[in-house]
Every structure is written in C-alpha cells, then in structure tokens.
TrEMBL record:
Pfam families: Rieske, VanA_C
Entry keyword annotation includes NAD: no
Signal peptide: none
Gene3D superfamilies: Naphthalene 1,2-dioxygenase Alpha Subunit, Chain A, domain 1, Rieske [2Fe-2S] iron-sulphur domain
Organism superkingdom: Bacteria
GO MF annotations in UniProt: 2 iron, 2 sulfur cluster binding; dioxygenase activity; metal ion binding
Protein species of origin: Noviherbaspirillum saxi
Domain Rieske: 21-124
Record's protein name: Aromatic ring-hydroxylating dioxygenase subunit alpha
Amino acid sequence: MRTNANDPVDAVLAVGLKDLWYPMCPSSFVAERPVSLRRLGRKFVLWREASGVLHALEDHCPHRGAPLSLGIALGDRIACGYHGVQVRADGVVMSVPGSPGCKLEGAKATRSYHVREAAGAIFLYNSSVDITDPPPLNLPTELTDDVHSHFLCYTEWKGDYRYVLDNVMDPMHGTFLHKQSHSMAEGDSTAAFRVRETDTGFVFEKEGQRGVNFDWTEWADTGLHWMRLEIPYPKTGGPGGNFIIIGSYTPISENVSAVFHWRCRKVDGWQRDTWRFLYQNRLEARHWAVLEQDRAILEMMEPDANQREMLYQHDMGIVRLRRHLRNLAKAQLEAGAEKAA
C-alpha cells in the first residue's frame, strides 16, 4: 500500500496508531541479551532481567545515538556498547563512565515503553508520550480463559499491514482462494453481506449462511486492535467445534508486516490433549498452506493497488474498517494539535 506523503492521516496509519497495544514478537524472541526490533515507525530494544521481567526502550543511546541493542544488559538497565553509558528501563541515564557527574546522568533521555507478555507473545503499548501506568491489555477471551486452547502462528509478510487487515476483513476470498482447503470447500459462491455493530467494533457477515465456510469477520478495539473469525471443521479435524482464528497485525516498515494469528479451539480435559496432538501432527501444515495462499497474493500486489480499485458489495467491511481507522488517525492528529496549541 503506497503511503501518500502529502496526506498526514495516511502517514499516521502507515506507522500505526498511538496509544494502543500492539503485538511485537513471539515471547521466544527475547531473552536476557538485548534484541532490536523495528516496529511502529522506530526501533525498540527489548530484553529480560534474569528473573524474566521484560523491558523496552527506544533503541537509541542519548549520548551519540548508538543502538543500545548492541550493548550489555545489566538487570534493569543497558550499558551502551559504544561508550558504556548506562540507561535504566525507565529511560533515565544512571551512569556516564567517561564523564562521571555530567548533566546527562540522572536525565530521562530515552523513550521507555510498557510491555506485557501474554498468549505466547510480547505486547508493547505504543504511547504518544511517556506514561507511568498503561491501560490494561485486554485480549479476546479465547486467549485468556480456561476452556480454549491455542497456538500462536507468527510470520512476516512483505507489504503494508493494512493489506493484511483488508484480507481478513474479506470473508468471500475464502470461497475462491482457499476453495481446495479441507475446511473451506463448502458454501455458496455468491452472497450478500451486512454489517452488525458490537460493543467493541463490528461484525461483517454473510446473510443466510453461518458455519459453512469463512462466513464472517469481527473487528474489535479493546485497547488492542484484533480480528476474529471462525472456520467450520469436519469431524476429521478433531474435537472442539469450529476453528477460531484471532489476528492482530503490526507494521514493521512500509513494506513489511508482523502477522500474528492465534489458532484456537474450545477444548478441555482429554479433548485438549487430543486436539493439540492432532494439530501439531496433521493440521498445522494445512493451515500454513492456506496462509501461503494469502501471502502469495498480498506480496504480489502493487503498492498502489488500493488506489486502482473497483469495489462492490462484498467489500463493505473493508470500506467500513478503512473509514474507521482514518477517523481514529484524524482524531489523533487533532489531539496532537490541541496539545501543541
């Protein structure tokens, strides 16, 4: 998706809205050694203390701008590898070995960020300004309750993350692109759609068809933007009813997206163990094959494809979501202008 440099709203959306939680990476990506991640229009450094406590700073030493990620983690602080300047997890410079007592010591000179770990992933609060306490991280129930089991599927796709949002907000593509899938071979190839409001967003769904194919998508804002859909499973797919997918997507750069899909089933007891075994040994490869079909399409789309569209009724959900995100970006710009004034 080509960003319009002359459109400030588009520029906001290209790097992700502020004051929201975003998934950054799987939990396994970060250990005690600092890790640099480019996300949301900047670079972050993440690391853990020996106890497992997570921290995140902008990957920028306030002395000369060297990447802190190339330094050494010292518990709740990082010593920059360039000149040894020690920056604490709250962004305060604790030590300048080359010039003890200089004005840099004690200054909050680096942006700090709040991070949380849940559902096998690390989430970061993309605050517009430094804050002491972030809002709670509210995940969908499938990722937090005791009656669902889930696997995190993480990948990185070339292209703007907004094309990934469009793809998920398009149930009709399942009938065509994924028609050879064991779970998306049924249902009508024509459909009328409607938008149904919810407390946290909306559902875009086929009229008169439910539980047959990829028949609906939900978009929600709980302080984290996420999407939910269900795909009906044949009995060979094991216990647990429909296959639930929770998705959340984070911009890495203009041309790369971090793609998070949690694959969920409502199972407990022996059924949970049965499904997890079946998933890992039979079903996961099939799901990756379906994702590959999406990836191949999206990565081959031209950056300006969204500027040359001829949309129809099946695309109401995409239009609704794009309009809503633009309104959120406009509100962010207006709030920033008011603060500046």
